[in-house]
Amino acid sequence: MCKTSVPSFCKVAEFYHHRCVQLLITLSEGDKLITRGVALAATCLLRSYEILDGDVDPNMHLRGAYSMASLHDVLSGNLQAGLLGAGFWNYLREDITFSLFQECPLKMNLEDTPLISHHHSDQDYLNSITLILGKIINMAFNNDREETRWNLAIDSLKKWRRACPDHLKPFSRKQGEAGTPHHFPAIWFLQPCHGKSPAVLHYYLVAMTVICVHASPNTLEDFGGFDLPDLKPESQDHLLETFALEICGVAFTAKIPSVLVNAFGPIAYCARFIRDKASQQELIRQLLACKSSIGWPVERLIDDLKTSWGTDQDSSGDQVMNF
After folding, report:
1. Residue 190's Cα: distance from chain center in Å?
2. What is the reported pTM?
3. CB of 240 closer than 8 Å to CB of 209
4. Half-sphere exposure of 169 (CA within 13 A, CB side)
5. pLDDT digit string (tens) for 70-115?
6. Is 119 contained in some domain?
7. 32 lies in some domain
8. Most exposed residue of 198, 201, 242, 302, measured as fewest CB within 10 angstroms of its CB?
9. Distance between CA atoms of 51 and 59, rounded to whole angstroms?
10. How far apart are CA 157 and CA 164, in angstroms?
């Protein structure tokens, strides 16, 4: 709140953060706050504060969350319901966001973590695509694309897409038009307020982008089996730009703070493939417009995108400062 509507809460936020860190430091392995998942959940919240607090991401609490998560038997697939399970999935999504910004592997090695085979809820589908994306990120950013494992990851993504229920997919869409104020497609979901449907599509599109980046040109026709509406793979550049525009369209059609914040990782990695100058400028405008409602330091993201686009000046016109 101190970054959006109530700046006077800044001191309260700083005190709360400092006090939480003090309490976490005193915990030892086996403490009930750790075994019940309270410490992991608290560290995930501190991670959100860490992002909002400054212009540079020190990544301290993400490392702390990893140390908490690694104490639990989660990587073997022994995921529990409740606070502990929620904390793990929150941590994994935070880890994915950081990896997409930095183009680095996750802190977690998911190689031996089994995929979710039974989906009983929308949350299961979101968790499932999160795990698939995490595995793909680790293989791609570790330059460890052993053919059998890489193909298995792609097959798991296709199977997940076929199993995904229709109510998690967009029910209506309108294509963006060059030369108009609507550069991004408008994409509507039945339940965007829950954030699951947009996040599901975002992670699917990021996984597709990572696969496309590392695909050989003669395999582009394989993307026809991924059930993407009105998409004819003309070239690798065209596919990558299309995925990026879809991601932006999902985020800015919803205009819900949770959806926007969760979209920043996908935007950071995928939007660098947007070639159209007008769409680049529209993305910058949309990011700046949402800052007041979410408190996120969007300038870091904008500067990074400008560098990738070759327009290496920050949002105020000065020389870019990388983070």
Report:
1. 21
2. 0.88
3. yes
4. 10
5. 655 666 666 667 888 888 888 899 999 999 999 999 988 888 888 8
6. no
7. yes
8. 302
9. 8
10. 10
